[in-house]
Design goal:
The protein has about 100 residues and is low in regular secondary structure. The protein contains one helix and three strands; from the N terminus they run E-H-E-E. It is globular and about 30 Å long.
């Protein structure tokens, strides 16, 4: 799955245990019930993605996903786009 563009994909209840998510684009994907907890290289919350309490997140982003999400339907949440698009690139300060 490395580098795949899954924007808007329906991954409901998918088992992505131990999947390499390096460069994967999950913007606005339906991740309700998806198993992501043991996936590797998930560096940022997927902006716009839908999820529920059965969705398991990698521990290092679970709290971020929860704090940046809004309940859009009973039991279904969406990761907000707070105007911050995450990037894997390292930015160099301008002097």
């Amino acid at each position: 799955m490395t580098g795949a563009d899954l924007t808007g994909a329906r991954l409901t209840e998918a088992d992505l245990t131990e999947a390499d998510l390096r460069g994967l684009d999950l913007y606005y994907a339906n991740l309700t019930g998806t198993k992501l907890a043991d996936a590797t290289h998930m560096l940022r919350p997927p902006t716009g993605a839908f999820w529920n309490r059965e969705t398991s997140w990698p521990p290092h982003i679970a709290r971020i996903v929860d704090s940046r999400s809004t309940e859009v339907r009973p039991g279904v949440f969406q990761v907000r786009d707070d105007g911050m698009h995450y990037t894997d690139r390292v930015l160099t300060p301008v002097r």
